[in-house]
Amino acid sequence: MSTRIATVFGGIGQQGSAVVHAILKDGTFTPRAVTRDVNSDSARALVKLGAEVVAANLGDKEAVKKAVTGAEAIFLVTIPFDPSLPEIAQGTNVIDASKGAGVRFVVFSTLPDVSELSKGKYTNAVQSDEKAKVQRYLEASGLADASIATGGFFENVLKPFLGHSWEKTDNGYILPTIMRPNAPTVQTWIGHDMGPAVLALFKQCDSRASEILGQTFVLGSARMTYEDFAAELSQGLGQPIQLKFAGRVGFHAADDMLDAMTEFTFYPGVSIPDPRLEKLGVKTGTVEEFGRTLLKSYLAEL
Ligand SMILES: NC(=O)c1ccc[n+]([C@@H]2O[C@H](COP(=O)([O-])OP(=O)(O)OC[C@H]3O[C@@H](n4cnc5c(N)ncnc54)[C@H](OP(=O)(O)O)[C@@H]3O)[C@@H](O)[C@H]2O)c1
C-alpha cells in the first residue's frame, strides 16, 4: 500500500467515491475517504478494498485537521443547503487545515458564480455561488490548487430528482425532467470521469504544473441540449425516451440555476470535452455508453 495519502472529502458520495476508486485502481496513492459514519456498509466496503476511512464533519475543524494531516493531495466536495454549515465554511475549514498541515495540492469540485455571470439577474443559485466563493478562497490561499467544474450529472437520471422519476410506456419510457428545453448545457458522467480527472491532476501537478495549477477544468462529455442527451441515451438503451419538461419547480436555487443555464453560456470558450483534460490523458465516457450500461440495468429493476 502506498505511503502517499490523498484525502477525499465526501468519499462515500458520488464524486468522492469515484475518486477513491480511481486512486485504489491506480495505486500511486492510498485514498483516505472522509465520511461522518465510518461504520456504514459503504465505508466498510472501502476499507476492504484498501482505503483508509476516517470520520469528519466538515464543520468540525479538529476532525478536518486530522483528516488532512499527512496527506499530500486533497479532493474537496462541499455540500449545499445546510443553513448551519454554509459551503464557504466547509471550504475554508478544509483549506485552512490543508495549509496548516503542509498539504501540497488541493483539487476542488466547483461551479460558476451565477450571480456574477448573470450580472445580478439570478441570485438564488447558492449551490453555485458558494462554490465560486470557496474556489476564490482556495486560489488566494497560497496552496497549489486546481478546480474541476461539473455540468449536470448523467447519474441524476438514476434516482428521482426533486420528485421526478421514470415512467414506463407501451414502447419505451418517459423521463420527467426539471432541465429546460433547447438549452445546451454541459453533461458530466461523474462515475466514469471524475476519478480519472482528479487522479490525472494529482499525478501530474508537479511534472505539468504550468498546465494544471490555478486552472479551472470543465469536466463533461458534451455540451448538448437535454433533447439530444435523451436521444443519445435512447440509442444506448435501445428504446424510445420521451422527455416531459416540468418547467419551474418552485425551488428557487434550482430554478435560478436552470434559468441561468438557459440564458447564459457556462464556461464560455471551453469546448467539451475540455481539451486541457484530454491532453492530461482523461478520456470521457459517452451518453450512449451510459444508456447501454447503467441506465439499462437501472430501468430493468424498476
Ligand atoms: N447533481 C448534479 O447534477 C450536480 C451538478 C453540479 C454540481 N453538483 C454538486 O455536487 C455536490 C454533491 O456531490 P455528490 O453528488 O458527490 O454528493 P453525494 O453523493 O450526495 O455525497 C455527499 C457526500 O458529502 C458528505 N457530506 C455531506 N455533508 C457533510 C458534512 N457536513 N461533513 C462531511 N461530509 C459531508 C456525505 O458524507 P457522509 O458519508 O458523511 O454521508 C457524502 O459522502 C453538491 O455540492 C452539488 O451542488 C451536483
From TrEMBL:
GO terms for cellular component: nucleus. SUPFAM superfamilies: NAD(P)-binding Rossmann-fold domains (SSF51735). Residues 7-245 form the NmrA-like domain. The keyword NADP applies. InterPro entries: NAD(P)-bd_dom_sf, NmrA-like, NmrA-like_oxidored. Keywords: NADP. The keyword Ribonucleoprotein does not apply. Belongs to the NmrA-type oxidoreductase family. This is NmrA-like domain-containing protein. The lineage of its organism: Eukaryota, Fungi, Dikarya, Basidiomycota, Agaricomycotina.
